[in-house]
Structure formats: structure tokens, C-alpha cells
Amino acid sequence: MGIDYTKRPKSAPDAPLNASSATQPVPQPSPQAAPQPPEPRVTLGKVTLTKAAPTVSLSKADAASGVLRVNLNWTARPPASGGFWKSLAGAPAIDLDLACLYEYTDGSKGVVQALGNAFRDEHTFGPEPICWLDGDDRTGTRTGGENLFVDLRHIQAVRRILVFAFIYEGVPNWAAADAVVTLFPRSGPQIEVRLDESDPQSPSCAIALLENVGGELSVRREVRYVRGGQSAVDAAYGWGMQWARGCK
Asked: 3-class SS at 43?
């Protein structure tokens, strides 16, 4: 089936001003009354990002250096045990694709994905990529899953990177895929994001946003299901790209 892939970037429109907020002061809560966000759950060297605690700072954890590996693993074929799962036994294996949208300080924007053989990014900082994929697991049975790499030596060149996945082929059921994304920094604990929600009408899911704010790189859990392909993910996050149909 056809899937979106990028052609060329375009300028994103400016956000409109909110007239009411511009003319009226917004009351600010006192520092004493401001609730503190809960800390991410840490288990045996692993940080699990949740709805209640969605963000972790790689800089504060001394993990914003070296090469960050982002791994996607999923269940290609759920066990056939009767009922709904038995009906899936003869269905095509679920093929998830790991991808990312990137935006760099030189103005370059793009997508890294298997579609269109866009396995590495494009920028002006040098010949080596900042983001790249190691390949395409079409079956979901490869032990290593799919891996996206981010070279954090170029952290100052990064504005934001949105890690997402989409169901390229197979049953559009995220619950059946039971996917999990794990970030492996060079140092510090692993960071886990489980796709523990689902929307059977959404072929795409924004998983995590890496954002550089004032030199501090943070990872925020998204797990936001999008009813559309890459162009719909782009629109949901205001990337401002132009897209066309494509296939593997």
C-alpha cells in the first residue's frame, strides 16, 4: 500500500497570536503552590516514561554525548489461542517501521525512514549523518528489531527530533503489536517508552520527542496515535514538509 514520503521542505506558517492573552495579564501560580512533576519510574538501570512522568533530561543524567541508539521491538504475530487472536493467525505479519522527523539549527528538515531509502539525514554540518537507520525489519522477528541512531556529538545542531512508528503492513492493531521503544544512551540508564495505548484507526504513532532547549537535551514521551501517514504526523507537530505517496 502507498505510504507518504518526503519530497522537499517548505516554511511552516507562523503561529497566530492570541489576542486575549496579549491584552490581559495571565495570573501566575505562586512557587509554593506549583506542583512538582513526578519523577520517571526507575527500575534496575531503566527509566520508564509514563503519562504521569513523561520527561527525562539526558543532559542532567550526563547522557547527552556519544551515539544514542533508539530501538523498536514488537510482536509480528500474536500467538493464536482462539477467538480474536486465532483469527489473526492467517493474517499477514505486522510490519512496523521506525522513523523520525528531524529539524536542525541550519534550517534543514526531513525524515529518516526506510521508505524512499531515506536511511540517513541531510544537513550542512559535515558529511556524516546526525540521524540514521540501520535497516528495515520486514518481519518483526529480528532479535535486534529496528534501530535509529542519533549522534549526540552534534547536540548543538539539533532543535528537535520526533521518533515515530507506523504500521506499514498487516493488522492495524497496536495492542497486538505490543511495541516498545528503548533509548540506549552512551551512559546512564536506558529509557523505555511502551506503546501501551492503542487506536485501531491510526496507522501512525508519535513515540518520543527529543528537544534541545538552551543546550539541554530532553526526551518526552508522546505515545500519540495519528490517523494518517507521515504527512499527518507532520501536521500534528507543525513540521511544515511537503509529502508524496510512496512504497517500499
From this structure: strand
**Residue indicated by cell numbers 501512525:** 204
- The three cell numbers of residue 234 are 507532520
CA distance 211 to 226: 20
Strand order of the β-sheet with 55-57 is 55-57, 216-226, 204-213, 158-169, 95-104, 109-112
Judged against a pLDDT cut of 90, whether residue 76 lies above it is answered with no
Place of cell 491510526: 202
CA–CA distances in Å: residue 215 to residues 59, 105, 112, 125: 8, 12, 23, 17
> Quick one: what percent of the chain has pLDDT higher than 90?
52
Domains detected in the chain: 49-76+94-239 (2.60.60.30)
Q: Distance between CA 83 and CA 87 in Å, rounded?
A: 6
